[in-house]
Amino acid sequence: MYALSRLAPEVRQYLLVTGNYWAFTLTDGALRMLVVLHFHSLGYTPLQIAALFLFYEIFGVVTNLVGGYLGARLGLNRTMNIGLGLQVAALLMLTVPAAWLTIPWVMGAQALSGIAKDLNKMSAKSSIKLLVPDSQQGTLYKWVAILTGSKNALKGVGFFMGGALLALLGFTGAVLAMAAVLALIWLASLLLLKKDLGKAKAKPKFRDIMSKSRAINILSAARLFLFGARDVWFVVALPVYLSSVFGWDFWMVGGFLAAWVIGYGMVQSFAPAITGKASGQLPDGRAAFAWAAVLAGLPAAIALGLSSDLPAQWVLLGGLMVFGALFAVNSSLHSYLIVSYAKEDGVSLDVGFYYMSNALGRLIGTLLSGWVYQAYGLEACLWVSSAFVLLAALISIGLPRHRAAD
């Protein structure tokens, strides 16, 4: 505590925001794995399990749109703390007797968790804009990359944690333990997080939830297709394919996907170095187009490889590793651009609108992942993925250039 008190106020707040985000992300990843493993053991099919998360994604779209407005009116400290509180409530909803854990009840808990997750994410990403001077764009990029990359790495750790807690404590015990720890973190956040962080000087009207910035609208459209491109094959199609075609058991599938997410997060953290910050260059609209263009052909190449005589496991797993690295750079670059483009007063309005597009892309990708895979197979999902990334690249041509490095 003494060392923490000696840090600059902005750094202390950044560490508090990041710590909240990390704690939430661990429970979010663990909860997803707990639900998947538990309901899989009860005999649910992969598509039925995916349906349990449908409200999670739908409510994410609404929350990002409205959450930015709430952050600008109430302050980001309040929206972050509301998110933490709602996650505790969502966890407690799942501690009821097993007979009460019906599909509608679990979908309701997941809806609450989806609201909590996007309030927390929007608050964390928006807060960084206010903690770094506008002239220090290089520092802003670094801090955003660390926050984004560490979040995804910890989500992968959460997958492992969920499986371990399920084995040690059972479903109810695991969920109750996570709720207790997160409740303590929530209480600490209520006491320590700066009041009125991100509160707009001029009270925004509800109609202001729709962005009026051309750059943010273009970036949001590109983000929608970028994340739709990932989830159209990653959410349902890939796990089902690994299980049904390669014959992997569920622990192999879950462990592999967890390791992939951890690696993906690590690459995100190093994105500033990969995209040229070390040489004094900061990414702009041209960089967003170039990195998306590089990624666009990869899913199609994997699809062609799977339909050839090449070993399917090597083609798919090798392609997935390359896809993860390239996608991580694209995602981290986008995360920096939205924070950089957003106006400082009422920053959460711009960030919330952008992440609404992100959530909508995930929702579209999730729905298509189940439908396209069931109707046409994994190769078709990969072709759709390539088309979506290509659209993201073409949309990115309209993004403005960014300022030079500080």
Automatic annotation (TrEMBL):
Secretion signal, residue range per the UniProt entry: none
UniProt protein name: Predicted arabinose efflux permease, MFS family
UniProt xrefs under Gene3D superfamilies: MFS general substrate transporter like domains (1.20.1250.20)
TM region(s), chain numbering: 21-41, 47-70, 82-103, 164-193, 214-242, 248-267, 288-308, 314-339, 351-376, 382-400
Top-level taxon of origin: Bacteria
GO molecular function: transmembrane transporter activity
InterPro entries registered for this protein in UniProt: MFS, MFS_ArsJ, MFS_trans_sf
Pfam families: MFS_1
Keyword annotations: Membrane, Transmembrane, Transmembrane helix
Lineage: Bacteria, Pseudomonadati, Pseudomonadota, Gammaproteobacteria, Pseudomonadales
